[in-house]
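Example with several molecule types.
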Amino acid sequence: MSEMVKPIILKFDDGREYTLEFTRESAIYAEEHGFDFNDMSAHMLKSVPQLFHFAFRANHPQLSKEQTDKILLEDLGGLSEEFSARLTELYLYPYTCLVNEENTPKNSHLTVLL
Amino acid sequence: MSCKRGKYPKKLASDCSPVEQSFSLKKIIWDAFPIYLAYGMAPDEYWRGNPYLAISYREAYKLKQEIKNNDAWLQGLYVYNAFSVVEYNLNKKKSQKAKDYLDKPIDLWKKPEPKTREEAIAAGIAELQALTMRWESTHGRSN
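Resulting structure tokens for the full complex:
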């Protein structure tokens, strides 16, 4: 059985707290609103802030793209490679949970390049 | 599954296309939806719940199938036993005593008969030897 992927929790000194995760609904919403996983490695500068924004949808749907961009740039000072990788893991998690690991070769049609 | 619009993400006709050039979560997630409904997962849990719930439902379904399979096997055993009794009673000699069907259900949790002291020691030694062999095969022989 695959491991449970924990959400990313952002806690700031001013008391703000955000839980970043993807449900199947928010993962599809991201795809429908311009996020293309296939383009991710080619367009990191565009894709990562997009993915970061959509990761708020499940628990903080009221936050606009401007607000999440502000959190990303001003509060976090951009995203590290490790953080981007965690976001990608969270994005793919609703999918990986559906794949029957016993019958499917590991990462058979998927390569994560970051 | 027909493509319907509702409170969950829309599935468009183009999503139903069998030719998929690139990785699309949308198609995979929609395709798996009826399977997880059959596993007993509620639509809201599937779309908005913790993704890991899908694994739990899948494993629970496997267990349920296993239980069903065991039940079917047990029923077969009872039927076999009933036929055996009937067959014996029909073909027995007049001098032989008739057999009865089981007077109570088979005890599924019956504990094995207690062993004699010597048998228990021999079983313990065999178990230890098997454990040692398994340890040596994975960790190498210790000196």
